[in-house]
From TrEMBL:
Keywords attached to this entry: Lipid metabolism, Methyltransferase, S-adenosyl-L-methionine, Transferase
Name by which UniProt lists this protein: Class I SAM-dependent methyltransferase
GO BP: methylation
EC number: 2.1.1.-
One Pfam match: CMAS
Keyword S-adenosyl-L-methionine: yes
Family under the similarity heading: Belongs to the CFA/CMAS family.
Alphabetized GO MF terms: methyltransferase activity
Transferase listed as a keyword: yes
Length: 398
């Protein structure tokens, strides 16, 4: 049983918020008709409720210490108001000395943890191509399927893909981009991934289409790509968050060596908003590292630009798709919740809760400018510094 002092702390911290808290059928705080209901299932959560953090609340939900009833948007809004924080304002105080976070073995294990949950599980709530990255809502009224197709085309246009060009997709996921590029732009493509499930899925699609001479998928770390094999265009979509801040120079150096002179690369990834941030604060980064993306690290776009340019690549275009990712994530959450029973049968209650709270929390973070999503296009000039690139963006918005 909890103490009267603890109950008093919870009641005080929840004053004026649209929430009710119940324990064993007894309401501890709030109104019965509140938008959000917190049902305490384990007394462990009571200390979290008395001194809440966003990461602590997410952990309590995933561990089953509480049930959260209400719309995901209302739950996240309550969480911010309850904790009274701006989670983007996190100074870089967590100096990570664990050099082994991004060895090849550890990175492979981390990718398998997140992406090899179940292909069918991802198929429940992603679009039909299983594109697991920010969609592009050109007008704002597109379906998820339409917005993901527009995103794939947006990338291909930015890279100015042409028939016969060699195209590399680092972290190809379930193959959406490479398949689109081969079918609509006539490139010869290579996709690499560390996920066994993704590799098997793309390989089966290649066999179904008979595209062995046009598309290859490899189960490979980007660091192991042979540099005798170069490419005209390179894309990396939703992958560099796994690289690690200390490895960004190595990552862009590798891309520089793989890219033909005059070629283009597009890096699409999540960045922090606070300049000195190493991730979201108030316990969120620690929650994500433990439950969602082990080894994932964020940095500000200025640091990405600096490392990219130091590697010899010339930044040409940068676009922040922050509002697009919030919209994408909310659609994923809605689709996941609509398939709750099927998801539970596939992956169980705990993992269902991880994906639900992680995606809803990420949507809220993008909506409130705690996170950004940048597409950066860069090129590899020749020895005289010459790079043939258009004077305007008409090639993207034709």
């Amino acid at each position: 049983m909890f103490s009267a002092l603890l109950q008093s702390q919870i009641q005080k911290s929840l004053t004026g918020l649209p929430v009710s808290v119940s324990w064993n059928g007894e309401r501890l705080a709030g109104d019965a008709d509140a938008k959000v209901a917190i049902l305490v299932k384990d007394a462990k959560v009571l200390t979290v409720l008395a001194k809440p953090t966003l990461g602590g609340l997410a952990r309590a939900y995933v561990e089953g210490w509480v049930d959260l009833q209400g719309k995901a948007q209302d739950i996240l809004a309550l969480g911010q108001a309850y904790c009274g924080v701006d989670a983007s304002d996190d100074a870089d105080t967590r100096k990570d000395w664990r050099w082994w976070r991004h060895t090849r073995t550890r990175d492979r294990r981390n990718i398998n943890y997140h992406y090899d949950v179940s292909n069918d599980f991802y198929g429940l709530w992603l679009d039909k191509r299983r594109v697991y990255s920010c969609a592009y809502f050109a007008n704002g009224d597109e379906t998820l399927e339409q917005a993901q197709e527009k995103k794939l085309d947006h990338i291909c246009r930015k890279l100015m893909l042409k028939p016969g060009e060699r195209f590399l997709d680092i972290g190809c996921g379930w193959g959406g981009l490479v398949l689109h590029a081969v079918e609509h732009y006539g490139v010869k493509a290579v996709g690499i991934t560390l996920s066994d499930n993704q590799h098997a899925h793309v390989q089966s699609l290649i066999e179904q289409r008979g595209w062995h001479d046009r598309l290859e998928v490899r189960l490979m770390d980007y660091r192991d790509l042979p540099e005798s094999e170069t490419f005209d265009k390179i894309a990396s979509v939703g992958m560099f968050e796994h690289v690690g801040k200390k490895n960004l120079r190595l990552y862009f150096d590798k891309i520089y060596r793989l890219l033909n002179t005059g070629g283009l690369v597009m890096n699409h990834g999540i960045t922090s908003v606070a300049l000195k941030s190493s991730g979201l604060g108030n316990g969120i980064s620690e929650f994500i590292d433990q439950y969602v993306f082990p080894g994932g690290e964020l940095t500000h776009v200025s640091h990405v630009m600096a490392e990219l340019a130091t590697s010899g690549l010339e930044p040409l275009d940068a676009e922040n798709l922050r509002p697009h990712y919030g919209k994408t994530l909310w659609q994923w959450v809605d689709r996941l919740e609509a398939h709750r029973e099927q998801a539970l049968a596939m992956i169980g209650e705990s993992k269902y809760r991880i994906w639900r709270i992680y995606m809803a929390g990420s949507a809220y973070a993008f909506d409130h400018n705690w996170l950004a999503l940048f597409q950066i296009v860069a090129g590899k000039p020749d020895a005289q510094g010459v790079l043939n690139y258009p004077y305007n963006r008409s090639h993207i918005y034709r």
